[in-house]
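Lecture notes, unit on protein representations.

Consider one protein chain, 240 amino acids long.
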Amino acid sequence: MRTIPLGVSFALLTLVGCSSGSGSGGTTTPPPPPPVAASPTFAPTPGLFTTGQSVTLADTTTGATIHYTIDGSTPTTTSTTYTAPIPFTADVTITAIAVATDYTTSPTTQGLYQIAGPTVSVVQSTHDQTQLMAAQAATLFTDTTAGTNNVIVDEAQTYQTIEGFGAAFTDSAAPLLEQVIAADPSNYLAHFRLSTVYRKLHRPDDVKRELDAYTRYKDMHEKLTSIYKTLDSPDKTPGK
């Protein structure tokens, strides 16, 4: 009767020993991975600006160090360390990461900052004349908003084809002819051509003015030409 409890106690001790995981058959749980550092933030927000700016980088991870590039490449821990706001006066792409002790490197953050050119006024005329020099929304031009057609000027050629480049006749001809007339008001052909441009632009008062100038200067030119021909005639002698 007294040996039975001893056998039971021994069996219980053996089971407790196995459940503890001691000995060569035990396993160890790996530690959890370190948390990921927060991605850097940019201020001001990336976008289009009319003047140069300075970009401030920040990170919410305690003790984080920010590394960045300004050429669009992916930064590493050997890239430039952020210590002060980053100034720019031309288009720039800033890419940044944050690293900190006991943290995994953050995901990259990228921002494109662009400097726009002057505001350009846009007008539109349609073939059905529903819009005639109608004002459109103004736009800003940058060197990164151009299309894929590059204009290459070959100095060895007098004339060459340029794809995707040009202007409407009425939009470009009027100011050019106005400049010609400003330099030489008696150029009657320029007055006539400008009147046709104004007619297409539906500017009747300007059309009348240029046609009057055309007639006046043309008559003057013809009279002067006639006088010069008379003076140069070989059968004309002084006193006759």
